[in-house]
Amino acid sequence: MIRSLAAVAALSILGGCGPAATTAADAGGQFAGLDGEILKWRAEIVKSGPLCQSAAEGQKCQGFEVACKAERTITPADRAAGVTAKLVAAMDWNGWDSKLKEAQAGSEAALFTKTGPAWTRAPHAPVNMSSCADL
User: Fold this and answer.
1) So where are the chain's domains?
2) Is the pTM of this model over 0.90?
3) How would you write the pLDDT of the chain (135 residues) with one tens digit per residue?
């Protein structure tokens, strides 16, 4: 039961848009492992995000959603370095601003790069939340 709920939660979080969206069917493909990296990113936001620090009930981060995912161009230099996939993802959520003492919306974008079997994540400038296009 708990495993089923976790799977449903993961799917709702990872239900991003665009061609980079992954499914169980392509788990061994170009974007294999990305879902797990996005879940790690979410966990880091919950742990250290400024809108996620309130200990009061009803003031915790919630409603995480991957708003978009979009592939980025892999340059010849990237390919020479072994990069096989590169994409930007944006996530939004609701949290609590302890200074303003009110609920606030949060969002963040990240660049995911796959080199060999390993993914790395780096901060990315804000993007259009529906297309992941750079602003």
Assistant:
1) 2-124
2) no
3) 343 334 334 444 444 444 444 343 345 689 999 999 999 999 999 999 999 998 887 788 999 999 999 999 999 999 999 999 999 999 999 999 988 999 999 999 999 999 999 999 999 999 999 999 999
Q: What's the one-letter identity of residue 23?
A: T
Residues forming beta bridges with residue 119, ordered by sequence position? 114
* d(C-alpha 73, C-alpha 116), whole Å: 17
CA distance 104 to 37: 25
Q: 112, 92, 94: which is closest to 103 by C-alpha?
A: 94
**DSSP assigned state of 31:** T
Helix (H) or strand (E) holding 46: helix 34-48
From CA 27, how far away is CA 6, in angstroms rounded?
A: 18
Bridge-partner residues for 70, per DSSP?
A: 88
Q: How far apart are CA 16 and CA 134, in angstroms?
A: 17
Q: Is residue 3 classed as helix, strand or coil in its secondary structure?
A: helix
